């Protein structure tokens, strides 16, 4: 078969968001509880920073592979103050085109084909896709009934081929926030077994009920085996600008330099300009939005927990998702399509996140105002009642 895609890519799941988006487009008036985006845009200061760009011909040339020095310096300051991560000497910051590229950089840097990467199930689908694309193997480990880490199961999954354990907190798709003690456990395990701890914190500002956020990169002695990743997409409403960053052990820089030089050459300079202005505004920008989202979270949980709604809703104190277990014999893909076509409400099927046992759906409330959220969840409740009858 000369003109077919590689076997490696053939094994990678088809992106789910475009599939769901097509069903939504075919069903006018659908309320989307689907894609994980926020409703708001960037701070005004970030938009205004564009007026000073391009200032000179050099703004149109390639920039540094690791990102522009002023942005890297500002990120280093933020990491020290907010995350307790001191990069001086042992680690370094690399600006990337979003958290997704940070993850791809990490996987390509630490795995050889056939190596294993432990993902918690349900996982963020692009993490699974990246591991498969790199020719490495996903080792899925189920989280517990409350979507929390199961350290014993993680340890049992380690083999001589394991190169990394991945954690995401606050979590997509479950909204779970892992306590410091659990993340310390994973990090210590990685240190003891000579493997990397890859930790995704792109939802670091999105926690509720005063739930603290913890960065394992801040643990003394963690720098040499911890890769932490962040994003401007959610906190600052900058998804289309493709801006994120990672903290890597100094020893991985040579590899990441090769990868990012090849995939990206440099992070888009104009986006870095905007991101720097956003970072100068700081996390206070997103605080009122998080407070508003908390209201949406409560509204969603209240509606889905009413008696007679055929589902279980695990605790979610972070991000802007619920990962709902539906009491249905339908497969999640069929349920999702029917919810859209028959009830005009969109969710994401749990199978995309590796949840193969039972029927799960991810419900996202990041992009909604209160009225739309109410309408969306009412349709969802009615749809679940009718479709599981
Ligand atoms: C857990 C997680 N990591 C990374 C990303 C990617 O974000 P970015 O837009 O920075 O690539 C997302 C986006 O939904 C996410 O949910």
Give the gist of this structure.
By secondary structure, the protein is of the alpha/beta class. The protein is built from 13 helices and 13 strands. Strand 9 and strand 10 form a beta hairpin.
Helices and strands in order:
Layout: H1 7-10, H2 16-25, E1 31-32, H3 44-49, H4 69-83, E2 91-96, H5 98-110, E3 116-121, H6 125-133, E4 137-142, H7 151-157, E5 162-168, H8 180-193, E6 196-200, E7 226-231, E8 244-249, H9 253-263, H10 269-281, H11 287-304, E9 311-312, E10 321-326, H12 332-343, E11 345-346, E12 348-349, E13 359-364, H13 370-387
Parallel strand pairs: 1-11, 3-4, 3-5, 5-6, 6-7
Antiparallel strand pairs: 2-8, 7-8, 9-10, 10-13, 12-13
Helix pairs in contact: 4-10, 5-6, 5-9, 11-13, 12-13
The protein binds pyridoxal-5'-phosphate.
Pyridoxal-5'-phosphate is lined by residues 36, 98-100, 124, 168, 172, 200, 202, 231, 233, 239, 244.
Q: How would you characterize the overall build of this protein?
A:
The structure is a single chain. With 389 residues, the chain is of the alpha/beta class. It is 39% helix and 16% strand. β5, α8 and β6 form a beta-alpha-beta unit. The longest helix is centred in the last third of the chain and has 18 residues. The protein is globular and about 60 Å long. The structure holds pyridoxal-5'-phosphate. Pyridoxal-5'-phosphate binds next to α5.
């Amino acid at each position: 078969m000369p003109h077919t895609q590689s076997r490696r890519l053939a094994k990678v799941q088809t992106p789910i968001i475009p599939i769901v988006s097509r069903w939504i487009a075919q069903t006018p008036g659908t309320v989307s509880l689907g894609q994980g985006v926020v409703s708001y845009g960037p701070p005004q200061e970030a938009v205004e920073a564009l007026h000073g760009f391009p200032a000179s011909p050099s703004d149109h040339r390639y920039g540094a592979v690791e990102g522009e020095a002023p942005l890297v310096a500002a990120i280093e300051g933020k990491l020290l103050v907010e995350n307790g991560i001191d990069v001086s000497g042992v680690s370094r910051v690399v600006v990337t085109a979003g958290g997704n590229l940070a993850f791809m950089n990490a996987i390509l840097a630490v795995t050889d084909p056939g190596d294993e990467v432990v993902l918690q199930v349900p996982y963020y689908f692009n993490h699974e896709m990246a591991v498969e694309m790199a020719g490495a193997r996903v080792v899925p480990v189920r989280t517990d009934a409350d979507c929390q880490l199961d350290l014993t199961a993680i340890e049992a999954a380690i083999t001589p081929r394991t190169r990394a354990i991945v954690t995401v907190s606050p979590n997509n798709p479950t909204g779970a926030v892992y306590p410091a003690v659990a993340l310390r456990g994973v990090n210590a395990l990685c240190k003891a077994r000579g493997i990397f701890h890859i930790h995704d914190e792109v939802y670091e500002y999105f926690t509720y009920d005063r739930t603290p956020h913890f960065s394992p990169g801040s643990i003394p002695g963690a720098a040499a085996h911890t890769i932490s990743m962040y994003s401007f997409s959610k906190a600052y409403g900058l998804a289309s600008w493709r801006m994120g960053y990672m903290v890597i052990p100094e020893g991985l820089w040579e590899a990441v330099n090769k990868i990012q030089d090849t995939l990206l050459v440099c992070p888009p300079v104009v986006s870095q300009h905007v991101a720097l202005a956003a970072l100068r505004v700081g996390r206070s920008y997103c605080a009122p939005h998080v407070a508003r989202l908390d209201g949406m979270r409560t509204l969603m949980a209240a509606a889905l927990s009413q008696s007679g709604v055929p589902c279980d809703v695990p605790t979610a104190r972070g991000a802007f998702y619920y990962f709902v277990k539906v009491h249905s014999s339908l497969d999640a893909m069929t349920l999702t399509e029917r919810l859209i076509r028959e009830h005009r409400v969109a969710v994401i099927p749990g199978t995309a996140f590796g949840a193969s046992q039972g029927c799960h759906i991810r419900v996202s409330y990041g992009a909604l105002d209160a009225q739309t959220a109410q309408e969306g969840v009412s349709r969802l409740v009615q749809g679940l009642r009718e479709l599981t009858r």
